[in-house]
Amino acid sequence: MIQLSENLFLGKGRTRECYRHPIDPSLCIKVDYHDKGCRQTSKEAKYYLKLRRIKPKLEYNFIPHFHGMVETNLGPGGVFDLIRNDDGQVSRTLGECLRDGTVERERPLWEAALDQFLSRLIESGVILRDLNPGNLSARRLADGSIQLVAIDGIGHRDLIPLCDYFPWIARRKQARRIAAKEMNSIQSLLNRAKRMAKRSS
Predict the structure, then answer these.
(1) 99 and 177 inside one domain
(2) In this predicted model, what pLDDT tens digit does every residue of 63-87 receive, in sequence order?
């Protein structure tokens, strides 16, 4: 059994906590909150296994690899790539970089990164259930450019998963979701971040 402790803690979302892997620094472990009875990690694991079967040539350059389930002292955990910058630092999220002004200061870099991410996402047919800036990790590469990687909300809840087998349905579904979440441009994201900042002030 893998022991997860406070010094390994990376962060948490609505349903899960994320920890550094205690042995392999290139990996992280996600566990569901016990008190909420969530099963998000097992659902995500099933979607990843389906991707391996129906999209064997998928390039994992916009979502992390899934390395299987493990038992931890906090319950079952999913093991994923831990997204790091080329200098070894754990990558920050797009949401964090929007809030502190990094995106606005380096706008051309972020516009290129978002365009590349959305192109890969739509072309792949992979569905992101919860597309928002907090679920995108921003990897800083050695040349200074940025690569966005979806680190949470991967998969869907469709009872009849036509989008998994018909690429045109997946692309249409994803395009609607991108527009609804105002994720189609850096300007839209900046506007959204400013609105949220006003509400919280």
Answers:
(1) yes
(2) 999 999 999 999 999 999 999 999 9
